[in-house]
Amino acid sequence: ASLGINEHHENIIINYLRFSKYQKGLRLKSVDASFSDMESSRLQEDTYTIDEVKEIIECLNTLVRADVETELIHTSHTVVLMLVQLFQQAEKWHLKLQPDISELENRQYLLEKIKQFEEKTSRGDGEPKPAARLEPMNESGTSALLKMEIEKLNELNSKLKEKLKFMEDQAIQSKKDNSQLKSDLEDAIHAMIAKKDQKNIYTSKMETHFNEFFVKFTQLVVQKSQMTSNQVSEMQSDLAKTKHQLLEVNEMLEMAEKELEKKVSQTTPFKNLKTMVQKKNEQIKELRKKLSKYITVDFFFNFFIKILSKRTNLVS
Asked: Where does the record say this protein resides (predicted)?
């Protein structure tokens, strides 16, 4: 009367049959109680009419039908609950059970094997055996499916580890790049500040030289107004020397600007500034060429004489 399953599952079925037998006994007692109640409450007379008998039978039918219906509902719900537990355990191992519902109509199997198994259990021959050993796992059936799932999980785990390592390497490289860019930006800012300070120094020096030149030129103009014609030529010579000094100062300024441009051109943020300075220098040179064609030393001398005379008239 074996069901073709292992000992562990067989013991579970034995326990379920005992539970079903206990529930069946309770329902039968309920049916017996319904008959007893009907007998004690309605069957006290010696004779009954046909209508009274029909009424008694209908009432008894209602009571028995309710008990039987309750038993059937309880049995079906119990079976469903057992199946849910089995399916949940199978899903934890990623298994898909495939019970054959058509076998539920196999009356020969139901009436013979399961009946014999239940009778054997009721006689005590089917008592659960303690300390049962599990059968060794083989490469077929459930163990094969478990092995396949484990291999898939291991492969997925390896891919995730590789992806995580790749992302960590990218994060580290990005952090290094950001640090390098930040350092380069700070260096460029410091270089800009330093070059700006140097340019301010050169500009200040040129303003000082120009002011000195203007003072000397003014003094020469005043002196020339007080000199004789013999001293005018000497004054013009001094003026030419002063102009020569101015040109030297301009050359020094151009050299300083070239040196500054050379240093600045080494950094990318100052290329635009270099282009602007070159354009300005070219414009200044063109203006100087145009002025040199029309303006002479005497022109500057007469121009400053007019300015001084206007200032003298205003003061007077």
From this structure: Cytoplasm
Q: Output the pLDDT for position 131.
A: 43
Determine the structural domain holding residue 37 and report its residue range: 7-130
Average pLDDT of each block of 10 consecutive residues along the chain (316 residues)?
75 86 86 84 80 86 88 88 90 84 72 75 56 47 70 84 86 83 82 74 73 73 59 68 76 76 66 78 80 61 66 56
Q: Please tell me the distance from the alpha carbon of residue 208 to that of residue 47, in angstroms, as a whole number.
A: 147
Do 37 and 115 sit in the same domain of this protein?
Answer: yes
Residues 11 and 126 in one domain: yes
Q: String of b and e for 235-252 (b: at least 16 CB within 10 Å)? A: eeeebeebeeeeeebeee
Q: How many domains does the chain have?
A: 2
Distance, CA of 164 to CA of 253 (rounded, Å): 60
Boundary of a domain, candidates 79, 99, 130: 130
pTM higher than 0.90: no
First-to-final CA distance of the chain: 145
Cα dihedral sign, 212-215-218-219: negative
CB 227 within 8 A of CB 235: yes
CB 40 within 8 A of CB 162: no
Within this chain, do residues 101 and 213 fall inside the same structural domain, yes or no?
Answer: no
Residue 296 forms part of a structural domain:
yes
Which residues lie below 8 Å from residue 27, measured CB to CB, with a gap of 6+? Answer: 67, 68, 70, 71
Q: How many residues does the chain have?
A: 316
> Other C-beta atoms within 10 Å of 10: how many?
19
**214 and 109 part of one domain:** no
pLDDT recorded at residue 285: 83
